[in-house]
Amino acid sequence: MNETTEQLAARLEANPDPGIALRLDGVRKTFHTALGPLEAVAGIDMSVGTGEIVAFLGPNGAGKTTSIDMMLGLTAPTSGTISVFGKSPRAAVEAGEISAVLQTGGLLRDLTVRETVTAIAALHGAKDRIEEVMERTNILSLSRRKVSKCSGGEQQRLKFALALLPDPRLLILDEPTAGMDVAARHAFWGTMRQDALEGRTVLFATHYLEEAQDFAERTILIGAGRVLADGPTNQLRTMTGGHVVSATLPDDRPAEPALAALRTLPRVVSVRLEGRRVSITGPESDAAALMLLTGLGARELEITAPTLESAFMALTEAR
Length: 319
Ligand SMILES: Nc1ncnc2c1ncn2[C@@H]1O[C@H](COP(=O)(O)OP(=O)(O)OP(=O)(O)O)[C@@H](O)[C@H]1O
Description:
Blueprint: H1 5-14, E1 20-33, E2 36-49, E3 53-57, H2 64-71, E4 79-84, H3 89-94, E5 98-101, H4 113-124, H5 130-136, H6 152-164, E6 170-174, H7 182-197, E7 201-206, H8 209-215, E8 218-223, E9 226-232, E10 243-248, H9 255-263, E11 270-274, E12 277-282, H10 285-295, E13 299-304, H11 308-317
Parallel strand pairs: 3-7, 3-8, 5-6, 6-7
Antiparallel strand pairs: 1-2, 1-4, 8-9, 10-12, 10-13, 11-12
């Protein structure tokens, strides 16, 4: 059916950002600590389209949890704006359009699994979704188990069930598979994929490269509160723009002048030393090889395409 002009106008008024589930513009968050201000999020611009599964990848302390707290309206940005389906995060939470599986808290240890699901379903007016959600998250067999007796992975599945109760259009997951074994991880992501096919948007924070690689078509890499790279996960390894050149430096000379010289090469992303072995990451691999062999007396030269891990290390360490 073709949309009438009135219907289009009504839709744009309800969501001025069609096709976009989540948008962050110039978002910053500064905490005031005893040691002075700490900029946990230092200016993030990003958007996530409806139906995408996106990995929010970064090392510890990168600012993932702080960003997620702001997306959920749990804390306000110091500056910048966040919109969820064109609404403020709080309005989207109230409308049941966004929900989350968070790392900490949230479960009462003395309730059983079913009592927990039933209590939260009552809050959302979603009693009719209890069976479906419990089946989907594979917790029916745990119905009568006390939360305190559930393993870490089982508690994660329960949290996942609670997050699905309002039938959110956008699901945010902070390290969702922590504590799950390999089989549970695969089952979990299988469910997620199915949900995404049905139109649910998923953003998950992780510091596991493999998890981004295996389950997200797109990865937003963050470090030190900034977006370092954003693109298809299978291209992340080339986002450093080049290869890794490694070689063994001569024993009879100090390494530091050689490292300083290598750092002057154009567009070098990182220079690292382990023992006498130096590795240079960057797009100008020929120039690095030439300098190593002819200028620095290095031997055992190797040039390799970056692994996802080396791309990740180079991008996060280079700042
Ligand atoms: N309430 C707070 N007060 C002061 N500093 C904070 C607060 N919350 C977070 N930080 C700091 O902000 C930075 C970003 O933390 P955040 O928890 O967002 O990172 P993360 O990427 O989620 O890390 P992890 O993977 O370890 O959970 C860290 O340096 C952290 O110590």
